[in-house]
Amino acid sequence: MTEGVVWLTIFVLSVFVGIEVISKVSSTLHTPLMSGANAIHGIILLGAILVTGTTESTFALIVGLVAIVLATVNMVGGFVVTDRMLQMFTRRKPARSPADTDGGAR
Amino acid sequence: MTEGVVWLTIFVLSVFVGIEVISKVSSTLHTPLMSGANAIHGIILLGAILVTGTTESTFALIVGLVAIVLATVNMVGGFVVTDRMLQMFTRRKPARSPADTDGGAR
Amino acid sequence: MPTWVQVVYLLCAVGFILALKGLSGPRTARSGNLIGAAAAVVACVLPFVYVDRLEHVPLMLGAVAVGTVGGVLGARRVQMTQMPQMVALFNGVGGGAAALVALLELRHMTDAVGGGELPGFDLAATAFTIFVGSVSFAGSLVTFAKLQELMTSRPVTFPGLPALFALLLVGAIALSVVTVTDAALAWAVVLCVVGLVFGVLLVLPVGGADVPIVISLLNAFTGLTVAAGGYVLGNTVLLVGGTLVGSAGTFLTLLMARAMGRSVANIMFGALKGGSTLGGGVASDRPVRSAGPDDVGIVLAYASRVIIVPGYGLAVAQAQHTLRELVDLLLKRGIKVDYAIHPVAGRMPGHMNVLLAEAQVPYEQLIEMDDINGEFKHTDVVLVVGANDVVNPAAKTTPGAPIYGMPILNADEAHQIVFMKRSMRPGFAGIENELLFDPKTTLLFGDAKDSLAKLLKAVESL
Amino acid sequence: MPTWVQVVYLLCAVGFILALKGLSGPRTARSGNLIGAAAAVVACVLPFVYVDRLEHVPLMLGAVAVGTVGGVLGARRVQMTQMPQMVALFNGVGGGAAALVALLELRHMTDAVGGGELPGFDLAATAFTIFVGSVSFAGSLVTFAKLQELMTSRPVTFPGLPALFALLLVGAIALSVVTVTDAALAWAVVLCVVGLVFGVLLVLPVGGADVPIVISLLNAFTGLTVAAGGYVLGNTVLLVGGTLVGSAGTFLTLLMARAMGRSVANIMFGALKGGSTLGGGVASDRPVRSAGPDDVGIVLAYASRVIIVPGYGLAVAQAQHTLRELVDLLLKRGIKVDYAIHPVAGRMPGHMNVLLAEAQVPYEQLIEMDDINGEFKHTDVVLVVGANDVVNPAAKTTPGAPIYGMPILNADEAHQIVFMKRSMRPGFAGIENELLFDPKTTLLFGDAKDSLAKLLKAVESL
Ligand SMILES: NC(=O)c1ccc[n+]([C@@H]2O[C@H](COP(=O)([O-])OP(=O)(O)OC[C@H]3O[C@@H](n4cnc5c(N)ncnc54)[C@H](OP(=O)(O)O)[C@@H]3O)[C@@H](O)[C@H]2O)c1
Ligand SMILES: NC(=O)c1ccc[n+]([C@@H]2O[C@H](COP(=O)([O-])OP(=O)(O)OC[C@H]3O[C@@H](n4cnc5c(N)ncnc54)[C@H](OP(=O)(O)O)[C@@H]3O)[C@@H](O)[C@H]2O)c1
Q1: What is the predicted pLDDT for the residue at C112?
Q2: What was the ipTM of the complex prediction?
Q3: Contact C421 CB / ligand 1 (< 6 Å)
C-alpha cells in the first residue's frame, strides 16, 4: 500500500473508534471525559521530544524546550486533574454520610 | 512503518471498530446482524477473483472457479436473505392489521 | 495497485463499517445491509478495472453468475423457520472459499519464489486460513445437517473424542509448521483434510438448541480467515471486512451466550465433560392437570386479557400461522392479546420476532420481556406455546439450576396458565418446571400446530 | 525505527483507546484515565531508548520536570468550580506545543531537502497544525480569561467582525498555500500570528455559559493538530491518539450541544448574526412574591419532602458547601431531601455532580433528571438555588422559545417553589420564566451563598 493510503486508513479507522467508543457516555461523565481526552492529546510531548532531540540550532532548541514544557503541562496536568475529578466520583459510593437517614415523614 | 506493523495496526483498529460498532445492538436484531456479518465475509469473492485471474494452471483455475462460486453464494445469498428478514421487520410498522383492536374489557 | 484503487478499497471498507453500524439499530438495519452489499459489489468489480492482465474473465463471470443464481434462489426460497441453517450454509461456503483461496495463494507463493526464501508471516497466515476455513466449512455443514434434521440434533459424543480432539489439534499445528517451513502444497492439502475432520468433531457434541451459538462462532472464524487472506493479498477491504466480522462476531457470540445465561465454553464443550445435564432431562411423572382443546377454548374465549408466550416448540411445530389466526379471532372478540417475546426464545436470538413477523403479526403486538413483565399480574390467561425454560421460575428461585440468573417472563403471576406441549419432557435446559405443577396451570398436550388448530375450532364454535 | 518500537507505539495507541473506553463508563472511568496516563508515559520514554543520537537529553528532561511541576501544581490547586478554565488552559498549551512542533518540523524539512522537492502532503499537514494549533492556543486563553473573569463573560462583538473573520480565513488559506509551495519558515510564522488573532476573534463573541462547548470544540481541534503532527513524523501514537481525541471530542461537542437543545453553529456564531436574544434578557418588572430567609426557613423546617435544584448560580456563588450544610441540617430534622441534577446545570455538562461531590454530598442524594421527575408532584418544597432555565416550563409550553424542546425538571409540579437568585434577570437563555410569577412561588433575593447562610441560621434557630 502507498504510504499515504496507510496513514489515511489508520486515520479513518481511528475516527470510527473515537466516535463509537464514547457514544454511550452518560452526561454525568462529560466533563471528566473531556478532560481525559484533553490529557491524551498531551502526547504531542512525544513529538516535541523527537523534534527537539534531533535539532542542532540553538534557536530551534529553545523553541523545542518551550514546546516540551507546554506539552508536559498539558499531559501531566490533564491526567492529574481528571484523576482528581474521578476520585471524587468514586469516593462517593462508600461515603454514606451518617446524616443520610431516610426517615422522612413520607 | 514496517509493512507488518501497518497490517497489525489496521487489524487492531478494526477489531475495536467491530466490537464497538455493534455493542449497542438489541437482542431482536441478533439474527439479522449475524446474517449481515456473514454476508460481509463473502468479500472473500474479491480474493478469489484476484487469485483466479492471475493463475495459469488449469487445475488452479478449476479450484479458483469453485472458490468463486462458493464465495458468490455466501455474499449474494447473505445480503439477500438479510434483506428479506429486515424487510419483514420494517414492513410491520405500517401494517396495522384491522384485527388489532384495543377493545379489551381492561 | 494505483493509489485511487487503494482509496476505493478503503471506501469499501468504510462501507462495511457503516453496514455493521446500521445493522445494529432497528431503523437503520435495512439501509445498513444495502450499504454493505453496495460496498461488496464495488470492491468485487474493481479488479476487472485495474488489474492489467486479468485472465479467464468470461469463466470467472460465469462462476459469479452461477453463484449469484444459487445464492438468490436459496435466499428467496428458504422459510423463515429455516433461517439458522441457511446462515450456517452460507457461512460454510464462505469458509470453504477462503480455504481454497489460501491454497491457491500458497501455490502462487511457492511458484513465484521457486524454493527460495518465503515470507514466514504470510505462510503462517495462509496455513491459518486453510485450517480454520476448513473447520468452518465442515462445522457449518454439520450444523446445517443438525438443524435441517438430516441427522440427530442431540449431542453426539464417543469415549475417545477429547483425546482425538487433542490429537487433531496437535497434528494441525505440526502441519502448519511444516507448511510454513517447507511451503509444500501437499502438506497444506493434508492440513485442509485435518481441518475438515476437526470441524465435524467440533460441532457433533453440541446439542440442537445450542447450534445458533456455534454458527455465530464459526461465522466469526470465517471472518478471521478472510482477514488473514487480506493480509496475504495486501488488500484493505479483505483485511478490514474480515476483521470486523471476526471481532463483531465474537462479541455477538458472547452477547448471545450471556442472554442464555451460559458460557461459550460450556456450550461448545459441555457435552464432552459429560457432567452437563443439559438436553438430557427425563419426563416427570408427578400429577398435573391437563385439559382438552374445548375446555381451554372456553377459558380463552371468556378472558379479557391474554398474553401469548411463544417458544422453541412453536418454531419446531411451525405453528406461527395458526397461532396468528387464533389471536386474530380472540382480538375480534374484544379480548386484549399480546405476545411476550423472550430474547432467547426460538432457535436463534431474535428468531421469534422474525417468525411472527413472517406470519404477519403486527409489530405492536410483540412486546419485549422488560416491557411486558409488569403486566402478567393483571392477566387472565397466559398461553405458553412450545416454551418452557423462558417461563421456568427456577431461574429466580433455585441457585445452581442451569438457568439460574437468566431473566424470565413472569408467567407465574397470571391468574391462569395454559401450557401447550407434547409431553412432560423438560425444555432445553433439562430441568423440571415447577410451573407445570402449579394449581393455576392447565396442560394441553399435543403438537402445537394440531392443538392450536383444534383450539381455533373450539373458540370459533363458541 | 526498529519493529519492536513500532509495536510498543501501537500498544500505547491501544492504551489510549482503552482509556477513552474506560472514561465513558462510571465504574471504569478512573482506571481508564490511569491506563491513558501509563500509555502516554511509556510512549514518551521510548525515544530516549531507541533514538540513536538523541541530543540535549538533560535539557529536555529539565523541561519535562518544569512542565510536570507546573501541571501537577495547577491540577492539584485548582478548585472544582474552576475546572472548566483549567481544562481550557491545558488544552491551550497543548495546541501551542503542537504549533511549535510543526514549526520545527517545517525547519527540519526545509533544511533536509535544501530547496529541492518537498512532499506536498506533509507540508499541508504542517501548515494545518501551525494554523489550527495557534487558533486553539489563543482561543483557549480567551476562554480561560472569560471563565476566570479576567474579562467580561458577555459576548463581545463589533460591526466589522464577520468581514474580519472572512478576511483572516482567506489570509490563512493563502498563507498555507504559500507555505506549502515555498516551504518558507517566515510565512509559517505569519500564519501562526494569523491563527492567534483568529483564535481570539473566534471566542470573543461567545457568551460565558456557552464557553464549555467552545472548550470542547477547541479540544477536538488540538487533537486533530496532534494527529497531523503524527502523520508528518510518521508516528502511530500521535496519529491514533490525536485522531481519537479529534473524533471523540467532536462527537462529545455535539452531544453537549444537544443536551442544551442548541446547535454548535448557533453557539459559535449566534452572537455574530445578531438575531439571537441569548444572554441578552432584561429584568422583568412584573410583580412577584418575595420573602426573607426566616419565612423560607420556616417553610423548609416544617416540610416533609424537599428537593434541591442546583444550577449555574450555585457554581458562581460557590455556595455548594453551605448548601450541603443546610441539607444535612434538614436531614437531621427527619426531612427527606434530594438533589435533582439536570444534565446541563452548572458551567459544564456533569459539572453539578463534580461540585456537589467535592462538597461531600453523598452519591445517593444526587438524583438524575429522569429518575426524579416523577417525584416533584409529591414534594412539599422545591428549593431552586441559582438555577433558572432548567426549571423553565417554557421548554414545554412555548414553541419558538430558545430552550423549547430541552428536557427540564418538573419543579412546577411541587406544592411550593422557592427561588434563590439575586435579581429578576432571566437565566442563560435570556427568556422570562413564568414559574417566577406562579402563585406557588416565593423568591429569596440575594447571592446564593449569603442567602443559604442566612437560611441555615434561620432553620437552626427553629
Ligand atoms: N433463542 C436462542 O438463541 C437460543 C439458542 C440456544 C439455546 N437457547 C435456549 O433455548 C431455551 C429456549 O426456551 P424456550 O422456552 O423457548 O424453549 P424450551 O425451554 O426448550 O422449551 C421448548 C418446549 O417446547 C415443547 N415442544 C417442542 N416441540 C413441540 C411441538 N412440536 N409442539 C408443542 N410443543 C413442543 C417442548 O416440550 P415437549 O417436548 O414436551 O413437547 C419444550 O418443553 C432456553 O433455555 C435458551 O437458553 C436459546
Ligand atoms: N452545563 C452546561 O454544560 C452548559 C453549558 C453552556 C450553557 N448551558 C446553559 O446554561 C443554562 C443552565 O441552566 P441553569 O438553570 O443552571 O442556569 P441559568 O438558567 O443560567 O440560571 C442561573 C440563575 O442563577 C442566578 N444566579 C447567578 N449568580 C447567582 C448568585 N451568585 N447567587 C444566586 N443566584 C445567582 C441567575 O439569576 P440572577 O442573575 O438574578 O441572580 C440565574 O437566573 C441552560 O440554559 C443551559 O443550556 C449549560
Answers
A1: 67
A2: 0.85
A3: yes
